[in-house]
Structures are given as C-alpha cells and as structure tokens.
Design a protein that fits this description.
It contains twelve helices and 21 strands. By secondary structure, it is α/β, with parallel strands linked by helices. It folds into two domains: 324 residues, ANL, N-terminal domain (Rossmann fold, 3-Layer(aba) Sandwich); 100 residues, GMP Synthetase, Chain A, domain 3 (2-Layer Sandwich). The model has no long low-confidence stretch (mean pLDDT 94). It binds 5'-O-[hydroxy(phenylacetyl)phosphoryl]adenosine.
Length: 433
Amino acid sequence: MILNPENECMELQARRKLQLASLKNLAEMLFTRVPFYRNKMAEKGMRPEDIHSLDDIQKLPFTTKDDLRDNYPHGLRACPADRIVEVHMSSGTTGKPIVNEYTIKDIDIWRESMSRTLAAAGCTKDDIVQNCYGYGLFTGGMGAHYGASTIGAQVLPMSSGHTGRQLMVMQDFGSTMLTCTPSYALYMAEEAVEAGIDLHSLPLNKGCFGAEPWSESMRREIESRYGMKAYDIYGLTEIIGPGVAFECEAQSGLHINEDLFYPEIIDPGTGLPVPDGEKGELVFSTLTREGTLLLRYRTRDITYFMREPCSCGRTTVRMHRLLGRTDDMLIIRGVNVFPSQIEHALIEIEGTEPHYLIVVSRGKDHLDEMELQVEVKKEFFSDEVKSLEGLRNRIESIMKSKLQVALKVKLVEPKTIERSTGKAKRVIDNRSI
Ligand code: DLL
C-alpha cells in the first residue's frame, strides 16, 4: 500500500522543485548554525545563495564518518540542546560512536519514512508486528516501532534475542509481521524447526529485514522457511535510522524516500557523480531535518540507481539492493571479493546452511589466504566422509570460478558458527596490514 501518494508518486519536476527548496534551506541552516559546515563551505568558496539548481550540490563539501567522530558528541547539532528529544548512536566497533540527535520534527520524519516503509510491505492497522530489532542506542528497534505505531498496527516490542520467548510470543499472540535482521530471521526459523514449530501454520505472512547485507537467495530461503514475503529495508544511523529506502511489492530495488533524504551515487575515487545504472558510493543529504543535519554524507555503501518506472506507481528513484561496502571489500591477492558474492554462491549449493564465516590470513609465503567455514546440513554431516569430501571440493571449485581467486573450505557441523541476534559477523581478517 502507498501510504503517502502525494509525496511518493509526485511528478518528477515537482519533486525536484521541492528538493531544491529543501537543499537551499539545508545549506542556509548549516552555514548559519554549524561552524564545522560554515568553515567547510568557506573552504570551497561557497555560500548558501550560490545554490541555484540541484546540480549545484556537487559544489558543496562531502561529510565523512571521521568528520562525525571528530565532532563527537554535539559538534554537528543544528538547534538548541533543549529541542532534542532523542539520541541514537551507531554500533561502530572502533573509536567514538556516531551520534544522531532528533527533535520532535525529526521523529515525525522518522515516523513518516518508516510508516511508508512498512506499509509498502503490506502493513496495516490490523497487523501484529513482532519487532525483534534491538531497542536502545541502535536505531532498528525504535525505527520499526515508530513506523508500525504510526500505521496503527499492534507492536510487540520484543527487541533481539531470547529466541525461545520470541517463538512462544509469535505463536501465542499471532504475529503477522516480523521485523529483524535477516540473519536473525534465519536463526529463529532454525530454532523453530528444532522446537517442532511449523512456521507455515502461523499467521505470520510478511517481514521487513535489513541492517546487514543479505542476498536474493537468502530472501528466498527466509520466504520458504516461514511461508512469508520478505522485504529489504535500508537505512543508517547517520541519516535517520531505518526508513531511508525500502522495497515495494515488486521486490525490485529499494525506493528511496528522496523528498526527505537526497541521494547521489559517486565514484568513490574521484567524488564525481556516476551515470545512472553504474555502481558507486551512495551519498545522502538530509533535506528536512532539524537536530543533526548532514550534507553529502558518504555512506561507503555500494549500489546503483534504477530510474525505470516501477509497477507499484511510486515515482521515487530506486537503488539496487546493496552490493557491498567500499570498506568491506576484501582484497585477496589483488582480487576484489565481497562477502555477498560468497553468500550468494553458497546458498545455491545443496547440503549447506546459509551460515558461514570468512577467515582471512597471511600465509608463511606472505600471500593472502582465505578460509570459508561453512555449516553442513545435519543429514549431510552424518553421511560418509567421501560425500563430505565431494561437497568440499564442489564448493571450492564453484567459489574459484565465481570469485577468480582460490579459497579453502572447512565444513563444520550444524550450529557451530556463532549466531547473532543482531548484525551477523561474516568476516574475520587476521592480516595485520
Ligand atoms: O542498520 C539501520 C537499520 C536498522 C536499517 C534496521 C535497516 C533495518 P547502522 O547500524 O548505522 O543502521 O548501520 C548502517 O548497515 O550503511 C549498511 O552498510 C548496512 N545496512 C543497512 N541496511 C541494509 C540492507 C542500521 N538492507 C549500515 N542491506 C549501512 C545491506 C544494510 N546492508
């Protein structure tokens, strides 16, 4: 369902006009209220009144993760402290966290963008939404909660973890929609089988999954294990949290809420825009926010724009599901490898579970070595050694042809790879470079 047809199906010229007015306002607010941005704009010789068209955004400075860390905790706040009603922070593992401060209007923007997101997956006021994104500083829990409650659905604010309790509530309360990371959805499905629960017999029929990379094959896996429709949703703490982009019933690219968050795709090397359809780094500017405003924030996420009309009727630009990150890309003996390629290939191979871990190290000969630990299905593991050996060889040769670089496969018993209730960790890089 299209929650806000006026904005989501707006004629393109009208939207561009709206975006330009918002961009001018954003530049003005940043210039007058945030010294960090005033200095950055001055370095470029730019003033807010120099913006005459949307293309002029290219003359404005980028913002990076380091800029946010350097300004921790309040350096980028664009309004008086007493107007902030909520704060979220990213789950980063190094250095200071990334902070996002919200005013009441910012929370309303979040409600709007997340309710559009959940509605596109079919959520209505009659749904019972089991929200297993983590609550707390992470934006997933509150974001999905705000979206579902704005629609008027009933929210079960479960947070992540306590899988036994999740499954009990899922059955006893008749949850119809699930929101969590895709890896946790698969883990719960696995536990359900173990507990003898037939997920297909439950009223659950749709879910919105995101916050970590996942593949088309993993979607099919979730859809078949639960008997539900699984939608990809995208967002990041820096911009608002979840609700930046979402799939509609066509499940063909994610519609960007571009009246709220202005997207660009650039060449990460040159910083110049790439032509539509070409891969590059996704960049966002917050068009209407008040607390933490960002100009041309470099997400490090890699995707491309899909501008062909969508069968759903929305006119917002779509982005392809994420193809990787500029910083997650592994360079193995000079070859670029994305964990998503490995996952995609793995799910197609019969006998394996979609749980894996990539361990990279540097061998005695100083060359990179990549080990792929893969869980084997229970029935396969009890099989004879010969067939396990065959499976291992098959995975190694499929990976070699897909990745153009060799890796060693280690088959491990079911349930030995650590499960995550939030974002899964897929790569351990032991190279000290
Ligand atoms: O993960 C916000 C979120 C919560 C999105 C719930 C979707 C659902 P961060 O913790 O700041 O925020 O992490 C943001 O996670 O830059 C991507 O690299 C990755 N990511 C988010 N959604 C997807 C997705 C939340 N659908 C970072 N597919 C982003 C792949 C995703 N990666």
